[in-house]
Amino acid sequence: MYFMDEKYSALFTPWKIGNVEIKNRIVQCSMGGTSLFGWLEPCHFDKEAANFLLNRAQDGVGLVLPGMQCVRDTMGRRWLWQNKKMFKELADYMVEYHKTGSKLFIQLAAGFGRSMAVAPWMVTLNNNKVLGALAKPVIDVSYCCASA
Description:
It comes from human gut metagenome. The chain folds into 2 domains: 6-110, no CATH class; 112-148, no CATH class. It contains 5 helices and 7 strands; from the N terminus they run E-E-E-H-E-E-H-E-E-H-H-H. It is an alpha/beta fold. The protein has a 3-stranded parallel beta sheet, with helices on one face. Helix 3 crosses helix 4.
């Protein structure tokens, strides 16, 4: 049997964000490798990240925040909403996730912005118009680094 120090009891009380009630105050913050829809690759439902996050919810975390998700692929430039298969897989996953009583908020982002590290190869693609045009169907450096 476990005994909790009374000073931590507030961590296990419910709270609200708007009209969403969260069962406790334990939050799994976003971190690399936990984006549900992939990262730096065409968007897809990332089963490995999903299982990791489901395990946190099953362990009692009240709110899970997966890694940031761009609304448009960095590679391939497809819009997130265009991947119907991915959202079907997410819907199936959420049935299991909701059984835990935990909440999951997906962070949407317009792009990398100031958090993007500009690598030397990106500078080359940006400065060389021919190479940049050849690479653009795969990675649009000016889009990725718009505010970097």
